[in-house]
Structures are given as C-alpha cells and as structure tokens.
Amino acid sequence: MMRLPFVILLLALFLAGCSVGLDYRRPDLDLPADYRDAVAPPEQAAVAALPWWQVYGDPTLKGLIQSALAGNLDVQLAAARVQEARALLAGARSPALPSLAAGVTASPTARQPGDDFTTSFLGGLFLAWEIDLWGRYGRATEAARAQLLATKAAQDGVYASLVASVAQSYFQLQSLAETAAITRRTIAAQRESLRLVSRLAAAGVSSAAEERQAENQLATTESLLPGLLTNIAATENSLSILLGRPPGPVALGTPAEPALPPPVPAGLPSALLERRPDLRQAEQQLIAANAKVGEAKALFFPSISLTGTFGAVSTELGDLVSGEGATVASPGFDLLQSLYVGGSLTANYRAALARLQQAGLTYRQTGLNALREVADALGRYGRSGDEIAAQRRRETAAREGLRLAEMRYRAGVVSYLEVLDAQRQLYAAETDRAQSELGRRTAAVQLYLALGGGWENR
Predict the structure, then answer these.
(1) Which residues touch 445 (CB under 8 Å, ≥6 apart)?
(2) Between the N and C ends of the chain, which has fewer C-beta atoms within 10 Å?
(3) pLDDT one-digit tens code per residue, 204-257
(4) Fold classification of 31-108+135-301+337-450 (topology level)
C-alpha cells in the first residue's frame, strides 16, 4: 500500500508537462514595407537606434536630461512598479513548489461511556505538494513573467517620454527667450522711432496723429512682453518639475536642432515591434492574457496533491517534547475534481477569453497608432525645412521693406503709417520664423520618440 503514493508521484511528474491552453504566437499586424513620407531607404538603420545623448548634442540639454532621469518622480515610480512586478513573479512561482510546515496538532480521542476525556497530540513535519499536471501554475508564472516584461517596457516608455518632454520644453524655452529678445529689440527700435516722430512733430514736420500712432504701436508691442515673460516662467517651472526639483529658473544654451541626419532614416516598420516601448508592453500584456486563458482552463481538470506527515504521536504532550512519542510516517495523496461550483469556472474561462480578445485588439490598435505617429512625424519634419526657408526669406524681405519705408518717410515721400506697417510686418516675420524653427525642433523630437528612441540610459 505504501507503493501507491510513489506510483502517483511518478505519474504526476510524467504528466506535469501537459499544460493546457495554446502557446503564444505573435499576431500578424500586416505592417507595410515602408513608412509614408519616408525619404531614406527603409533598409537603412533607423535614427531611433541612436542613443539620446547622440541625438541631443547640446551640452546643457544633455545635463538636463541626465538630471531628469536621476531625479524625476515618474521614473522612480516606474522603477518601483518593476520591483512590484518582480515580486509578483516570485509569488506566482511558489504554488508549484512543495510546502513544508512544522507544528503540533491536538485532537480528541474516541472513548467509551464512562472513560475519561483524552487528547492525542501529533507533532512533526507536514508536507503538501500539488502536482501541476495541467500547467495551471506554469501558466500563472508565464503570465506574471509577461507582466514583468510589460512593466519594464512601460518603464522604458517613461524614459523615452521624459527625454522627449525635457527636450521639447527646453526648445520651447529657447524659442520663448528668442521671441522675448526680438520683442525687446523691436520695442527699442519703436522707442527710437517715437523720439524721431516727436521731434519732427515739435518742428511741425510730422502731425500729432502720427505721433499718437507711434505711441500706440509702441504700447501694443510693450504689452506683449509681460505675457512672454509669464510663459517663460511657466515653462521653466514645468521643466523644473520634470527634473524633480522645485520650480525655478533654467539655464539655456545656444539654440540647436537635434542631430537628425538629412534625409532621416526611419528604418523598417517591423522594427517598431521590438523598438517602441508601448508596442512591447502591449505584446507582453497579450502574452499574459493568453497564459491566463490556459490557467483558467486548467481549473476544469482534477488536482492531485501529495501529502505527508513525519513526526511523533502521543496522548501526553510531554512525551513529544522528550522524544518518547511513537514515530509516525504517513505519506498520502489527495485527488479533487470539481463537479459543481455554480458556473464560476465557466464564467472565469469566458472572461479570460474576452480579456485575451481585448489584449489582441489593443495590440493591433497600438501598432496602427505607432505607424500613424511615425508617418505624421516624418511629414512634419520633412516639410519643416521648406517652411523655415520661406520664413527666413520673408524676414529678409520685411527687414528690407522697413529700411526702405524709413528712408521714404525721412524723405517725405510717405506717411508714418507705412513705417508702422513695415515694423509690424518685420516683428511678425521674426516671431513666425522663431516659431517655425521651434516647430522643426519639436518635429525632430516627436519623430525620434515615434520611432522608439530615447529610452536608453547610460
């Protein structure tokens, strides 16, 4: 009779590899051969393969990104989530291992009428091991491992988003500072023009109306400066929070465009599956959902557990302490098959299938969004160069137009209204050119992020 548990053990170990449920296979996302608006050969290595410290060559920006990666609270939160997922993986493995406990149990002993009450004491080691015949705990471990990898991919996504956010805020701050400098320069020029018009009006050459117009133009431009300074302070505060420090001023370097080679190599769309953190996270969540289906299916099958008690038994507790109790060795097994549990097993299995379907749709949707983001970023970055060139030509023409208008006004050929209009056109051209340059830098940041770059850390 003692041979039966060992026979069951051998059979259980033989069947332990029979995991129920389908093994994961990556769905076909039907990715195109190339991105829309891609100008470089798709076989060329993607710019996303470059680490962020090579893309953002500004030493000041490099230092800010390093500070953010070290002090940002979202980065620390993502690291804590990875630690949690790692601990959950260790916990998911534990049910598949034997459990061993030591203790003492007391139970009443059967007696005849008139006998005294007696108690039987059992002390020793208690062993229990549920054999994972159908791979229930194996699937649970697989799901926990996939969730850990999904959490790590989410952590990479936090890195990439933070690098992009710091770079974008830094470039925006540079653009605001340049616009403020343009505004101050324009204010100074308009003040000089007002002094000239005032002198000419005092001499009777210009009219009081022209002097009022110059004053109005100057006041209009001066009113723009406080808003710019407010935006600069707000952007500095936001950037400081990204760095993990209280709001405060941020030092700036010389404005520079991210080092993306023209034409920008985007690489193959299939590379996004391994490169973009959100796609890797979505796939790992799909793997976890697939494993959860197998785990739910395994609950329909019987469970077999090996048990054993090794110790001593006595009607006196002192005999156990002194070692005088009778030795007990009692191996055994439990076989349990659920017959009716109110439909919970079926409901749990159907819910797991529904979650698997949701995870698959999320994975496909994430892939489509990734392709859209890359195509949008390629289009914006590719056309931003033409926009900047046109804005620079416009700025040059506006500056020359102002010079000619001032000459014509001094010569008495035109009224001061033409000078005021030329000043407005030059100011608009200069600020629009600064915005176009910011747009190109922002497009470069978004392209690098869309291709899956920026999550590498030194």
Answers:
(1) 164, 167, 168, 171, 258
(2) N
(3) 777 788 888 888 989 999 999 999 999 999 999 999 999 998 998 888 877 676
(4) Outer membrane efflux proteins (OEP) (1.20.1600)
